[in-house]
Write the structure tokens for this entry.
Amino acid sequence: MSSVPMENTTSPRKSKKALPVGHYRGLASWTVVFFVFLYLPIVVLIFYSFNANRMVMNWGGFGIDWYIKAFQNDDIQSAVWNSLVVATVATVVATAIATVGALVLARGGNFRGKTISLGLITLPLMVPEIVTAVAVLIFFAAIGLNWGLGNVIIAHTTFCIPFAFMPIRARLEGMDTSLEQAARDLYASEWETFRYVTVPLLMPGILAGAMLSFVISMDDFIITLMVGGAGSTTLPVYIYSMIRRGLTPEINAVSTLLLLVSIAIVTAYWIMSRKTET
Amino acid sequence: MSNWLPKSAAGRRWLGLAPSYFVIGIFMLVPMVIMGVFSFLEPNPYGGVKPVGSLDAYVKLFFEYDLEDNLVFNPGYLNIILRSFQLSFGATLLCLIFGFPVAYFITLQPENRRNLYIYLITIPFWTNLLIRTFAWIIILGRGGVIETPLLWAGIIEDSLRMMYTDGAIAIGLTYSYLPLMVLPIYASLEKLDFRLLEAASDLYANRFEVMTKVVIPLCKPGIIAGCILVFIPCIGAFIAPNLLGGGKKLMLGSLVQFQFASARNWPFGSALSMLLLSAVVVVLIFYARAAKKREAMEGTA
């Protein structure tokens, strides 16, 4: 490539009709349509959760009756509890495993088996969820493991590892090692350097990974449906059984609450990651 | 404090990786191997398998036994597999057509606004897929958000019957995985040198040629990555075909689930999963080859 100053050759922008090179008509309106498509279901879902009627699709006036009903529903309460237990345990374990894995893969230099290790850790992202679900179901049946919610927690921990791993590794690769070297030069032991320098610097990555794991675990449906037994219904599985029984605004009310939790967590993650960038 | 850690770098490496290897190896890799073995066994009528080797599960994909115990060709399952591929290709194409201009539009925006757009695209992706698909029932269904105003205005007289069709499944799949198309395309467009577009324009390329001969070839890696990221979850989809196809229009994913939940034919379900898995492996190998080829070309250029 020659280094001709291209700025000078920009086509004249004075005439109102001519768009600059690379700009196309209709892109903005196309994007508007795109976002309407993306958000229409979410808006519709929230809107109909305030339907006072028994049938979702027949608007019977504004009301929060279905929220009250959902809060009084014991099955929903136990499903929420199960979801929280599973997501919390899976997040803590998966994040710990992903952190030590990421430390090795980001800081361990090049070693034999690095590519394979990376492939193994990201394997749960590559395999279709239904295949994972079936394989784990068969495995638990084959070894006769029947821990109820424990089975679900094991499955969730496994597929949460890559989601926790990716932001942690990204953070590690963007981190300057000079502070750690300075600590070592000032006679901090290896452990002290790790504990007081590496971990605090890495914390935003660890938190981001934990948040993603939590959201992914809270949202998982198909793997829990297959692996979970009668006593280990999580919220998405319960919502599915509600949909199959008939469409009432109670589904919308519960769904809206779950939706808001996810959006809140992802927004917190987004704000945090923007703060650490600058 | 750290005396318990192994001294050598290699020892530490494997200590750090051991938990990942242990969990993913035992609870993901080993199960998939067992699933492969199960696909070659005979089904137990109450679920599970009998330890008797058999190719029946794979034969069942194409043939069935008639009343006289002769094998006859049965296109039933083959049709479901074909439909899964068609719908997945269709949804991938729709995502590309719908998503590419948006990714391009975002690239043209000032940097702080780009981040906001990306955030808005990822938000639905992190919210529950089941719930978002359920919302489409309210939109497409009889007496739903689309139909009611049209009926009221007298534009249509009867229900459009949009639910439980291949079209509804395609919309659901497109909607589910659209962000997975936009994000990689955006990532590769972001690196695009816009001076190249002006150079092309100066060399008398028209707008259309600038797009097809400069922009699209340069962001091909992003397009391919996006297509793969959309195609893989589509081919194994369960929620969209189940909720929007009403369980009548089956896809591979729902067929697999059915074998374990209702039909209790574990070997056949395993064989279908193996088929799904091999489709994914083929796609990934294709991707790795394309990436290698590109690297080689960039290396020589």
Notes: Residues 74-107 of chain A form the longest helix (34 residues). The two ends of chain A are 33 Å apart (CA to CA). Chain A has two domains: 16-65, 68-277.
